[in-house]
Design goal:
Radius of gyration: 23 Å
Structural class: mainly alpha
Helix content: over 70%
Largest sheet: none
Number of strands: 0
Shape: globular
Number of helices: 11
Order of helices and strands: HHHHHHHHHHH
């Protein structure tokens, strides 16, 4: 090794150190941004649940100001290449926060839904950059599989909410649509539970039982308020699951532990070999 250092030009070694340093700097920046965006996502969620009945209260106004300041700080601290991304985020957030105080309850939820979705897609984009810097192809594929299953479940939940809205409006065959979307959403949840932690899987089981009651019921037996509550509860579970996945993927110690466990599992002899 000492001979290799002796014959390697100094400028080449300096470039190598610089590239390594730059890579670590980018990874640390991505990790910090992911954590900040996760915090912002929960701030928006808390605003949605806490102030829907008092959107013009001083407390609600203070919470919105805190969200604005949080977005501005992230825009200030991001790299030049990311500036357009965070500028759009700040502008979209300002537009939503300014509109919220005078909205009806359905419009309030719709604005929060779109704002959260925008945030989630930004988090996903930065998370992919972070994982790509780690050079773990397997981890990237695992995250991609999780993301696709998770986003499919979110889309199914949106269709369930749309069917519930049609039911409230008294549209024709709306209950049949609610029942169909319930079954589709259950299927998506089952797929997602296969790659979720046991804690979230238990929460899925409770929601799954409530969807069973919908599928087995006849029109008029389940009030729309119950359908809305089930969807809201599922939304919180999905947010926790997404947040948990980001925690795992951005913690180097957890990632290393996970890969060691998988390597050990793959090294074990198969039942056919031990027979």
């Amino acid at each position: 090794m000492s001979l290799l250092r002796a014959i390697t030009p100094t400028w080449l070694m300096q470039i190598g150190k610089s590239m390594s340093s730059t890579k670590e700097t980018r990874r640390e920046q991505y990790r910090s941004q992911i954590n900040s965006l996760r915090s912002l996502l929960w701030m928006v969620h808390e605003h949605n649940t806490r102030y829907v009945r008092c959107p013009q209260s001083p407390q609600a106004s203070k919470a919105r100001d805190e969200i604005r300041e949080f977005c501005e700080e992230m825009q200030t601290s991001c790299s030049n290449a990311q500036r357009p991304l965070f500028r759009v985020l700040t502008a979209r957030m300002e537009q939503a926060l300014s509109a919220l105080p005078n909205q009806t309850k359905p419009s309030w939820y719709a604005i929060h839904h779109r704002t959260s979705d925008h945030l989630i897609y930004i988090i996903d984009e930065i998370a992919r950059s972070y994982i790509a810097e780690s050079k773990h192809d397997a981890m990237y594929e695992e995250y991609q599989a999780f993301w696709q299953t998770w986003i499919d479940t979110k889309e199914s939940q949106l269709r369930f909410e749309q069917a519930t809205t049609r039911l409230i409006e008294g549209k024709m065959a709306s209950w049949q649509s609610v029942s169909l979307q319930s079954r589709i959403l259950q299927k998506r949840m089952h797929q997602l539970s296969l790659i979720a932690s046991s804690e979230v899987s238990l929460a899925f089981d409770r929601i799954d039982n409530r969807f069973d009651s919908i599928v087995q019921s006849k029109e008029g037996e389940v009030p729309p308020s119950t359908l809305i509550k089930i969807s809201q509860d599922l939304s919180v579970i999905l947010l926790h699951l997404f947040d948990q996945e980001l925690t795992i993927r951005t913690d180097d110690a957890l990632v290393e532990k996970l890969h060691k466990a998988k390597s050990t599992l793959h090294a074990l002899p198969s039942p056919r070999q031990t027979a």
